[in-house]
Amino acid sequence: MASDAGRDDFIIAIRSAFLKKGTRQKFSLFTLLIISILVLSLEYFKSGPVDTFRSITKDIIFKGSFFISEPFVYIKKNYYNFKEHLQMYEEYTELKNKKYSLDSLKNENKFYKSENKRLKKLIDEKNVYSNEFLLSKVLLDQQSPYLKSVIINKGFYHGIKLGVAVKEKYYFVGKIINVNFLTSRILLASDLNSKIPVIIEPNGINAILSGQGHNDYAGLEFLPKLKKIKEGDVVYTSGVDGIISEAIPIGKVIEKDEKLLVEFFVDYNQLKYVKINK
């Protein structure tokens, strides 16, 4: 009873739906339903005319679908081709720019290499003279706790003289203690055996700079008892020995462990080139 009532309710609902539609809408819906049923039923008929009709219908649908979709496929294919060509052009432009940059860097590198060779040749193989000094390269550093000296690539063939002052930029390094034909030895101001006459400014106090075996500082000897020396005073060569030129900056006065010392302006650990006074 319950199932019969449910089926009756379903039929009543369908009938109500048709009754609510207009006459034209009812006919259209009914016609579409009949056509759909007929099309689906064709698959179950195996007679000659039906097969022919079904085959022709399928061909028309398939061919029609192919021709309708062909423009869209063509547009899609050309769109992707255009996109691919555009991407290839961008990559080509980028590679071209990189090539130009690489060529520019290569040319710049060649220029710097040739310039470096030219300058190296100028320094290493030619005498660099001025009215005041001769430029020389440090060949060998023989520094030890007991010996502070270096070997340079200039000798008496180049005009080097025994006892003359040696500078790095503007600052005092040491003096020539041995001259060979093509090389010379410099005794650094930091050596224990180094004794250099100096003058301390601004008060003009004379003293002797005494090496301590330390690359950072040296001591002061023969200071006057009533000394007027303070930290920051600058120490120069005095030139009283008649060999070392005067007024070459050496360092500045510092106080360490209640002793007055001279902190060198030169970094002895970084000596590469020096200038020898003529």
UniProtKB/TrEMBL annotation:
Keywords: Cell shape, Coiled coil, Membrane, Transmembrane, Transmembrane helix
Family from the record: Belongs to the MreC family.
Coiled coil: 95-132
Pfam families (UniProt xref): MreC
Transmembrane segment boundaries: 27-45
Biological source species: marine metagenome
Gene3D superfamilies: Rod shape-determining protein MreC, domain 1, Rod shape-determining protein MreC, domain 2
Annotated GO biological process: regulation of cell shape
GO terms under cellular component: plasma membrane
Sequence ranges assigned to domain Rod shape-determining protein MreC beta-barrel core in this UniProt record: 138-276
Coiled coil found in the keyword field: yes
InterPro entries in UniProt: Cell/Rod_1, Cell/Rod_MreC_2, MreC, MreC_beta-barrel_core
Protein name: Cell shape-determining protein MreC
